[in-house]
C-alpha cells in the first residue's frame, strides 16, 4: 500500500538532513502535483537539492490526484496541496498519509485515513534506531525549519521515546 505526503514533512525533514528517514521507513512516497509545485517553490537551496535527488531516484514520486470533486470539497477549508494529498490517499487506499497541519489532519481523520507527520517520523526513527535521540532532532527542526512544537506535545513525545 502506498504512502502519500503533503508538502510540510518533506522540506522540514530535508532542512534537518533527515529526508532519508522517509525512504527508510516507507520505501516510496507519492506526492500529488500541487505538492510538487509547492516543493519547487521552496527558497532553501539545500532542501530543494535533497528533494530533487529523491525525485530523480524515484522513491519520491509525483502522481496526479484524480478525485476532482473531493479535491474541490476539501479546498473549501484546506490548501490545494493538502486537498490533493488527502484525495490521493483516499483513491490509493494509502497505508499512511503524511500531514502536519491540524486542519488537514482532522479532515484526513474524518475519512479514516491513517496519518502521521514529521514528528511521528522522527519518533519512529528513534524507536527503530535510525536516530540516537529525539530531543536534538526536535530542537534542530525548531531551529532550522522554524517548526512549532507545543511544549506539552514535546514532553509527551520525549516520554514515548524514553528520553
Notes on the protein architecture:
With 163 residues, this protein is mostly helical. Helices cover 59% and strands 9% of the residues. The chain has one domain (3-119): Rossmann fold, CATH 3.40.50.1010. Helix 1 crosses helix 4 (45-57) and helix 5 crosses helix 6 (80-92). The radius of gyration is 15 Å and the shape is globular. The termini are far apart.
The CATH topology assignment is: Rossmann fold
What value does the average pLDDT take? 95
In this structure, how is the largest beta sheet organized?
A: 3 strands, parallel
Q: Write down the secondary-structure element order.
A: EHHEHHEHHEHEHHH
Q: Please mark out the parts with pLDDT under 50 across 5 or more consecutive residues, or reply none.
A: none
Number of helices: 10
CATH architecture level-2 label = 3-Layer(aba) Sandwich
Fourth-tier CATH superfamily name: 5'-nuclease
Helix-residue proportion: 55-70%
Amino acid at each position: 500500500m502506498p504512502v502519500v505526503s503533503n508538502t510540510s514533512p518533506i522540506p522540514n525533514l530535508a532542512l534537518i538532513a533527515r529526508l532519508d528517514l522517509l525512504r527508510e521507513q516507507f520505501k516510496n512516497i507519492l506526492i500529488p502535483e500541487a505538492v510538487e509545485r509547492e516543493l519547487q517553490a521552496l527558497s532553501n537551496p539545500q532542501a530543494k537539492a535533497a528533494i530533487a535527488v529523491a525525485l530523480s531516484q524515484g522513491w519520491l514520486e509525483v502522481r496526479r490526484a484524480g478525485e476532482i470533486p473531493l479535491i474541490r470539497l476539501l479546498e473549501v477549508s484546506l490548501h490545494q496541496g493538502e486537498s490533493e494529498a488527502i484525495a490521493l490517499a483516499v483513491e490509493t487506499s494509502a497505508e499512511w498519509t503524511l500531514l502536519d497541519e491540524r486542519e488537514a489532519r482532522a479532515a484526513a481523520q474524518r475519512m479514516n485515513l491513517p496519518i502521521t507527520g514529521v514528528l511521528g517520523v522522527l519518533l519512529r526513527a528513534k524507536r527503530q534506531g535510525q536516530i540516537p535521540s529525539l530531543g536534538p532532532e526536535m530542537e534542530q527542526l525548531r531551529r532550522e525549519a522554524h517548526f512549532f512544537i507545543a511544549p506539552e506535545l514535546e514532553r509527551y513525545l520525549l516520554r514515548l521515546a524514553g528520553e
